[in-house]
Amino acid sequence: MLTSGITWLSAEPWAHSAGSLVLLLSVAVAARVVASRVIVRVVRLVVQRTTNRWDDALLGYRVFHRAAQVLPYVVIEWGIGLVPDLPAGVAVLGGNLALAMMMLYAALAADGILDAAQAVYSTTPHARTRSIKGYVQLGKLALFVIAAIAIVATLIDRSPWLLLSGLGAMSAVLMLVFKDTLLSFVASVQLTSNDMLRVGDWIEMPQVGADGDVVDIALHTVKVQNWDKTITTIPTWRLISESFRNWRGMQQSGGRRIKRTLCIDAGSVAFLDEAAMAHLSRMHLLTPYIEEKQRKLTEANQALGTAAGVPANTRRLTNIGTFRAYVLAYLKANPDIHDEMTCMARAMEPGATGIPIEVYCFSTSVVWAEYERIQGDVFDHLLAILPEFGLRLYQNPAGADLQRWQALSVG
């Protein structure tokens, strides 16, 4: 009887501690229910009644939900020291676990704040010219590294500075592990500060197969949607270490360059006689040019005196020169060609494929489909008008040409 009484007295403190722990956990569970079902619901109702975008973003990224999860662990961390007869080791372990969970949910809430900040910023006009996604990702990386160090230090009951000193000794390994992150961060800063790249820019980077619009700029990668609707992912640092073409300047200028050549058969180039000049002068685009040229040529030839009797001594119009004048007049009269940008038709160096006449001008539209229509209309007209000048387009012999020559030789 005495032995059972002594056993009961020795077991009573443990029962007291267990009951206190159950009570503490019950209070923590109640705090969690109150935080998640009452406080969060009240916050949601308040947020829905406001017009501020920030609180909507914070609610959408569950910042309030994650912050509410901190409350039960605050109760445990604060109340575990009040449990009577609890061994010191158990109290320290329980307090450290609660503190570690508090840090975890605080880090998750801070992560949601960063996501909300990026979402709100993406709706502003500045987001198109300055992307902060890379900085947000870097902030998240730093946040979780710091949180991990703090949580581990708390669980092992050591100072976080001790862990940091150990990481300092492993700096070479860390530099190797985070090499791509560091390169990408530096590249993101340079791309943003120098305004080299924006979401929506059309870029070309043939070495990685990219030709399309930039749809996302992140810390480590830049995504480009090509014109065939495929996605090319480019490491951010490659946009700094290698060259790429950005078409933003063309899009902002309001004009897109047309640069194409017509190769004229050298055998069709000749001087214009009176009949040919009379025929061409009926073209209203050429009338001012031919009248002015005829006046200047007449004055120059009269100054030659008797030497003008030899045709080789006189100045005369050529069909290819008159065609270039027509091309320039046609471009300047075309409403689809930008009249405030460079516009010319120039003769290039003759070669094995004839005499190239280069058309250099800018369309009034930068939209791809409209640009191609304008360019096609211009060259359709120029190709069709060539015979009026007695000119031929150079073309390599085709099978039909060889058959026709063979038939003529046989005949």
UniProtKB/TrEMBL annotation:
<feature type="transmembrane region" description="Helical">
    <location>
        <begin position="20"/>
        <end position="43"/>
    </location>
</feature>
<dbReference type="InterPro" id="IPR006685">
    <property type="entry name" value="MscS_channel_2nd"/>
</dbReference>
<keyword id="KW-0472">Membrane</keyword>
<keyword id="KW-0997">Cell inner membrane</keyword>
<feature type="domain" description="Mechanosensitive ion channel MscS">
    <location>
        <begin position="180"/>
        <end position="248"/>
    </location>
</feature>
<dbReference type="InterPro" id="IPR049278">
    <property type="entry name" value="MS_channel_C"/>
</dbReference>
<feature type="transmembrane region" description="Helical">
    <location>
        <begin position="89"/>
        <end position="114"/>
    </location>
</feature>
<dbReference type="GO" id="GO:0071470">
    <property type="term" value="P:cellular response to osmotic stress"/>
</dbReference>
<keyword id="KW-1003">Cell membrane</keyword>
<dbReference type="InterPro" id="IPR030192">
    <property type="entry name" value="YbdG"/>
</dbReference>
<dbReference type="GO" id="GO:0008381">
    <property type="term" value="F:mechanosensitive monoatomic ion channel activity"/>
</dbReference>
<dbReference type="GO" id="GO:0005886">
    <property type="term" value="C:plasma membrane"/>
</dbReference>
<comment type="similarity">
    <text>Belongs to the MscS (TC 1.A.23) family.</text>
</comment>
<dbReference type="Pfam" id="PF21082">
    <property type="entry name" value="MS_channel_3rd"/>
</dbReference>
<feature type="transmembrane region" description="Helical">
    <location>
        <begin position="161"/>
        <end position="178"/>
    </location>
</feature>
<keyword id="KW-1133">Transmembrane helix</keyword>
<feature type="domain" description="Mechanosensitive ion channel MscS C-terminal">
    <location>
        <begin position="328"/>
        <end position="392"/>
    </location>
</feature>
<dbReference type="InterPro" id="IPR023408">
    <property type="entry name" value="MscS_beta-dom_sf"/>
</dbReference>
<keyword id="KW-0812">Transmembrane</keyword>
<protein>
    <recommendedName>
        <fullName>Mechanosensing system component YbdG</fullName>
    </recommendedName>
</protein>
<keyword id="KW-0346">Stress response</keyword>
<dbReference type="Pfam" id="PF00924">
    <property type="entry name" value="MS_channel_2nd"/>
</dbReference>
<dbReference type="InterPro" id="IPR010920">
    <property type="entry name" value="LSM_dom_sf"/>
</dbReference>
<feature type="transmembrane region" description="Helical">
    <location>
        <begin position="135"/>
        <end position="155"/>
    </location>
</feature>
